[in-house]
Amino acid sequence: MKKLDRKLKVGILGGTGMVGQRFITLLENHPWFEVTTIAASSHSAGKTYEESMAGRWKLQTPMPEAVKKIVVQDVSDVENVAKDVDFVFSAVNMSKDEIRAIEEEYAKTETPVVSNNSAHRWTKDVPMVVPEINDDHYAVIPAQKKRLGTEKGFIAVKPNCSIQCYVPALYAWKEFEPTKVVVSTYQAISGAGKNFQDWPEMVGNIIPYIGGEEEKSEKEPLKIFGRVENGEIVNAEGPLITSQCIRVPVLEGHTATIFVDFAKKPTKEELIDRLVNFRGFPQEADLPSAPKQFIQYLTEDDRPQVTQDVYYENGFGVSFGRLREDTIFDWKLVGLAHNTVRGAAGGAVLSAEALVEKGYITYK
């Protein structure tokens, strides 16, 4: 783990939304990062963070004292927001075109942007990283800097929240060559930035549609499994993935049912072994937020469960269970990941730690 002389100064773009709130709670007492700037829409600008969040704090974790008196800035005032920070996390709520533009504006002020947004996930020179899986994709950053005309500024993104509850298993099993995958995700309402107070019609309800989610679930893993070539990320050709994504009355935690065919035929013991012994760059580098054991396998028939397992490794770990042979596919199992920790803000924090460790994020 890298030793820093002092904490890096961090800005949160979109700090008043649910993901922004999660960033702020995760960064409380962080050993490397200190939130010094919060930016949001012009509606919140000029107020203290505590004032701007009156009646809008959605998390069960209380608002950290250290941020309450920070005066919120207008996120569109890029030069002023960027001048006093070393890098920013982005969770802005805008159209995709607006997000693409403003994240590039921040990068061009020589401010690295670690984004939770989907706008740049398909930009070919922007790494979309699960740090345990494809940290080698950060190698595309020099090509992006050349395009942007920057020395320090760049954009890195994290993938969709729901793929965290099945892609880690597929990657841990890459030696057995997964060929076809059928996945259904059962997604918590916090993935839509809401709680039950905001969305009372979700109580006791299921909605069998989440806009854009199935395309992300099927395509994003192929970028993650891809390779860097000539300054761009080239998608992997497989596995072939088909998905259904369903909103369920759960506050936090995305669950997946996963069916997999393999080119090579592993045993159950081999599959479990690869899950529980999987380690990636965050574990090797002992990053501050890294789960000690990224993946756990639960042997009980009724696990993983949201109420018991969603905060495994403080929400940074992923849980699997119910691995068994299938009558049509080779194997099937159930996965669970915390959608706003591992799947959103926490995944971005871990990515920022990896970028610091690798020397891409430094003091201005």
Automatic annotation (TrEMBL):
One Gene Ontology molecular-function label: aspartate-semialdehyde dehydrogenase activity
Record-linked InterPro entries: ASADH-related (IPR051823), Asp_semi-ald_DH_pep-lack (IPR005676), NAD(P)-bd_dom_sf (IPR036291), Semialdehyde_DH_NAD-bd (IPR000534), Semialdhyde_DH_dimer_dom (IPR012280)
Start and end residues of each Semialdehyde dehydrogenase NAD-binding domain: 9-141
Superkingdom, natural source: Bacteria
A single BP term in Gene Ontology: methionine biosynthetic process
Oxidoreductase keyword on record: yes
Keywords attached to this entry: NADP, Oxidoreductase
Record: active site: C161, H254
PANTHER family cross-referenced by the UniProt entry: ASPARTATE-SEMIALDEHYDE DEHYDROGENASE
Family: Belongs to the aspartate-semialdehyde dehydrogenase family.
UniProt-recorded name of the protein: Aspartate-semialdehyde dehydrogenase
Native source species: Eubacterium pyruvativorans
